[in-house]
Hints:
The model is unreliable at 1-15 (pLDDT under 50). The chain has 148 residues and is mainly beta. The chain has helices spanning 15-20, 45-49, 143-146, and strands at 23-30, 41-44, 54-60, 63-70, 73-78, 92-94, 97-99, 106-108, 124-125, 127-130, 133-137.
Amino acid sequence: MPVPNPHDEPPPDTADEADDRDWRLALEITDEEVGSTADVKTISRGQVDSDQDIAVEVLLAGRVIAVFRHAGSWFAMDGICSHQGGPLAAGIVRDGCVTCPWHGWQYDLATGIQMINRQPLQQSFPVRQLNDRVEIQMPVENESDQQN
């Protein structure tokens, strides 16, 4: 019978706990000054409570991700426009889609589908808000990625 290593993480009890390993902190909601640290960007609680649209670019697992709050819901997608690399978090959000500021390509916030040809060109990610944390579920690509 193998001897358990005290440094090993115990196996999750539920599927929800297993999924927690893939969730990454993207933003913190704060009452203090908005900005960023070396690890995480912050947004004001006032912005979230007012239900105004929010768009922030974050770097997670080596990828640029655009995080949006629109119509009371959170969304996240690949932050680099598939057309010519424009910054989607700098785009205009309206009616459930974001318009790239460079050439006007539009993507559905929930699915990443390009609105003209209806092709899924931007990868989208599940988002959740847990108290003062906004987290994005990123695919785990290898063992070292799980530890970041």
